[in-house]
Specification:
The protein contains 2 helices and 10 strands, in the order E-E-E-E-E-E-H-E-E-E-H-E. By secondary structure, the protein is mainly β. The relative contact order is 0.24.
């Protein structure tokens, strides 16, 4: 399955948490969880949205961040953040929260997809394929994986 080149700038109202960060593999995963009142949850599974950041250089966010507004930093936002953290070179600055530059990930690209997985939603992300059994068992909803281009 090849990722579909997609535009960012979407707002997702699910509650997101940082579920995985591996410095050695330079990746991070934010997962959006289904609402507690989702009727599918009664079956013991639900649809999550995984944001898989590749080539992570820096991350700044709380473990639990609520809704996500995934977008690339604009010219002024990028300049403001680089004045604080230093130049980031040929990396994206992905902003995570609505109307804020305080939560961000500096990375080479991001992939995202929805997955129907069992509760309590602690499986590693099927994106990235670090756990081949999970990746083979849990396919993306509608077999669609979105991705930005590499910066």
């Amino acid at each position: 399955m090849m990722p579909v080149s997609s535009e960012m700038g979407f707002l997702d109202e699910r509650s997101f948490s940082l579920i995985e960060y591996r410095h050695s593999h330079a990746h991070a995963v934010l997962r959006g969880f289904p609402p507690f009142d989702d009727p599918v949850m009664e079956s013991g599974e639900g649809v999550v949205l995984d944001l898989y950041f590749v080539g992570v250089r820096r991350i700044s966010c709380s473990k639990d961040i609520g809704p996500v507004h995934l977008r690339a930093a604009g010219t002024e936002e990028r300049a403001t953040l680089e004045s604080r953290i230093g130049l980031v070179g040929r990396k994206w600055i992905f902003l995570l929260e609505p109307d804020s530059i305080e939560s961000y990930v500096v990375a080479g690209r991001v992939m995202w997809a929805e997955f129907l997985i069992p509760s309590p939603f602690t499986l590693p992300s099927p994106l990235g394929g670090l756990d081949r059994e999970v990746a083979d068992t849990y396919r993306p909803v509608n077999d669609v994986v979105h991705s930005t281009r590499a910066y």
